[in-house]
């Protein structure tokens, strides 16, 4: 049976993720997060100290990248595009990071760290060179896509189904990762 403090912490984190995703870092308040969690704001401060520390905890995110070594070389870009799209569509944490990363230096650093470490590790496993450059270029595509689809809500991008996204985004990721020009271009 979970302790009451664990339940309270989890309620705070869930409320924080939702509030940061909906309002962004700057507009989200400790009071609003506490109200969403159904607790006194002092409890948020007790467990997390301040808004920045709460955000840092709420913004922990694992991309859960697939094992790229198990994927045929010519399918890496489309596999990664499909995976990232699926991951984004289920994550309030990534929405919060994306919104906050545009205006908050700590959130921007968190996004850079996630991309560098998690993408870098996956790319190293398949023996790529120039890993920081490749990770940065992949990040430009997936973060730009996510910004346009989920935050700015560009109608043509929002309306695309998953396979259409993979069709358009996959070849670019493929080129960034392997240097290959997909046969569909």
From TrEMBL:
GO terms for molecular function: DNA-binding transcription factor activity; transcription cis-regulatory region binding. Coiled coil: none annotated. InterPro entries: Homeodomain-like_sf, HTH-type_TetR-like_transc_reg, HTH_TetR, Tet_transcr_reg_TetR-rel_C_sf, TetR_C_16. Residues 29-48 bind DNA. Residues 6-66 form the HTH tetR-type domain. The keyword DNA-binding applies. Pfam families: TetR_C_16 (PF17920), TetR_N (PF00440). It comes from the Bacteria. Keywords: DNA-binding. PROSITE patterns: HTH_TETR_2. The keyword DNA-binding applies. This is TetR/AcrR family transcriptional regulator. It comes from Kibdelosporangium aridum.
